[in-house]
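# nightly structure sweep
# worker-07 picked up a monomer target from the shared queue
# config: single-sequence mode, recycle default, output format = structure tokens
# input follows
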Amino acid sequence: DKIILVDNGSLNKKEIDQYIDYTNINQQKIVLVRHTDNLGSAGGFKSGILEARKHVCDYVLFLDDDNVPEDGWGEKIVGLVKFFAKEKVVISINRYNAVGNSVDFSIPDLYVKNYLKLNVIGDLFNRIKKYFIKKKNNKDIRVFPIVHTSISSYGGTVLPFSAILTTDLPKDIFYLYFDDFEYMSRIEKAGYVFYIVNKPTIKDIDSSFSNKTSSTESFFDLHSNLLKVYYYSRNRILLRRIVKTQNIVSLFLNSFIWVLGQIIFGLFLSKNIKHWLKVSGVLFKGFKDGLCVKI
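# output follows
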């Protein structure tokens, strides 16, 4: 019924305005929310949700700026909504990143876990398990069309209107990364049940850092964005501090192991020692600020 477009400090405002004017000739379908400055994903989704609250509807689909749904996605989503036929169900659509890897998983024993509890050792075992499952033939992989899950990211999530109306807005202190998990965790606490579905699919045509196979490679890539490295490091810890899923000692140990592991492996992957030292410093600053809830 409506498309809410958040212009988050873009540099091509004239092109956007021309497109909206052309599209809205027959009906006012696109609603524009414009920021002079880039407020990050947290600020962008916060103002987008504020606008969405003005347009009474049944469901709201969230999309990141680089999400491209497959053809026919609208009919598939409508079919899913009718299938669930429950007001308190959140549907998360399977996403594929720029290099074709699945962002979300539809293998229950890998994906259904409490993401909000940082457990480096447990996550390592999950990654090993995922690797060996991928080594099998496709016919041996247990892929389910619909899987019960815990929370989700913004991109490709279908939320009942009641959820965005009654849940406090995303916390813009996150600026970038993990604000969606904090927001969705509050929706889950309000009694909404999350499911991830295989169809339709959404492709991420851009990548947060680079098209590397691991976060460590992305962090220490010579072209990595240090601002993103900082927020990724800080916010993955800040998330757990705010939702209080772990005591401070457990969080400190898990976070320290994670940061130290990134730095050690980064030394082997890095092609420039000065860049490695700079990225290592940024990771440690994020670690310290996250633990101290320094905004």
